[in-house]
Amino acid sequence: MTIRFRRLVAAGAALVASSSFLAACGSDDAGSGSADGGDGDLTPVTLQLQWLPQAQFAGYYAAVDQGFFADEGLDVTIVPSGGDIVPQDALANGDADFAIAWVPKVLGSIEQGANLTDVAQIFQRSGTLQVSWADSGIESVADFEGKKIGSWGFGNEWEIFAAMAAEGLDSTTVDIVTQDFNMNAFLQGDIDAAQAMTYNEYAQLLETPDPDTGELYQPDDFNVISYADTSGGMLQDAIWADTDRLESDEDYADTTVAFLKAVVKGWAFARDNVQEAADITVAAGSSWGPSHELWMANETNKLIWPSPDGIGVIDEGAWDQTVEGAMAAVNEQGQNLITAEPPATAYDNTYIEQALEELGDEVDTTGDDYAPMDVELTEGGA
């Protein structure tokens, strides 16, 4: 996610904390060449994240920690962003080989001229929520009219507008209030319904004591609207590659398959070893407390597993819904996210399907028997 400038100081501290982890991952330069690198050398690859180190990205950090990238002949550098780097821009500019970004954000970039391809849809469902107090009367998107609706902005708001459009609500009928990436404004009563991710801001609420009781807030204190249950739900964390390089550079295409094989193994590890995956992201520089990080690892898994068609395979129906929502969404300034359908090259299952085929029975790539764990949050996520 992106973030406001005043929090970049904290972001920089987290980046410094993760520097030793990144140094172990490989070169900072975007790599090219075949997956074996020749003469037994590892091919340097740069992966640009859309946020700071945390369990939202546990599969990638696990793939480094467990040697899955090295097994595929890759030396991967993971580059976080504290809002100072837009991942799809870094990819389009040649500063990264692959990038993690939400689909609607990249669709906007593609319409502006970026030539990028979603080669693996890691998150199969939206994790965005709108949270209000249980007695607020806000129980669905239709109840937004006339209310103060929190949004982070920076491209994270389009699910709100897509869901409103599906309900026939004009964006000017609500008061969109810019919120920070925390729940402070909501708790202080400045927002009627706050934007939250299942794996982060919602947990922040449940880690907060109710001043009236001294006990932590409970889920029944809130109304929770999940955009995954609305027509506005959009695909989120995806792995993006450079379309021109995929088409013109056979070595890059081979590296993409090798990269995806290691990523699949990393996410399967994070599914089957949730606590260890959380610990790995803490070691990589996450600033969250241990119970919050474990919650995040667990909730992130819920957005991925089960994956009936195989992890990373882009579901055409979910893609179409994302595109339709992106075209229908109109923000409070009357602007559209996109005005036309993206080109056919905007997504391609070829590379993830080849990766899954090559992995065969080595890894459980569907997670049919996946069951989340129960995580007990503590005050402040400690």
SSE arrangement:
Elements: H1 8-17, H2 19-25, E1 43-48, H3 58-65, H4 68-71, E2 74-79, H5 87-92, E3 98-101, H6 103-111, E4 116-120, E5 128-133, E6 148-151, H7 158-166, E7 175-178, H8 184-187, E8 193-197, H9 201-206, E9 222-226, E10 238-242, H10 243-248, H11 250-272, H12 274-283, H13 290-304, H14 316-328, H15 350-359
Parallel strand pairs: 1-2, 1-3, 6-7
Antiparallel strand pairs: 3-10, 4-10, 5-8, 5-9
Describe, in plain words, how this protein is organized in 3D:
- The protein has helices at residues 8-17, 19-25, 58-65, 68-71, 87-92, 103-111, 158-166, 184-187, 201-206, 243-248, 250-272, 274-283, 290-304, 316-328, 350-359, and strands at 43-48, 74-79, 98-101, 116-120, 128-133, 148-151, 175-178, 193-197, 222-226, 238-242.
- Helix 7 links the parallel strand 6 (148-151) and strand 7.
- The chain starts with 7 loop residues before the first helix and ends in a 23-residue tail after the last helix.
- Helix 3 crosses helix 12, helix 7 packs across helix 14 (316-328) and helix 11 (250-272) crosses helix 12 (274-283).
- The chain is an alpha/beta fold and 382 residues long.
- The chain has two domains: 5-125 and 234-317 and 337-370, Periplasmic binding protein-like II (D-Maltodextrin-Binding Protein, domain 2, 3-Layer(aba) Sandwich); 128-229, Periplasmic binding protein-like II (D-Maltodextrin-Binding Protein, domain 2).
- The strands form three sheets. A five-stranded mixed beta sheet has the order 2-1-3-10-4.
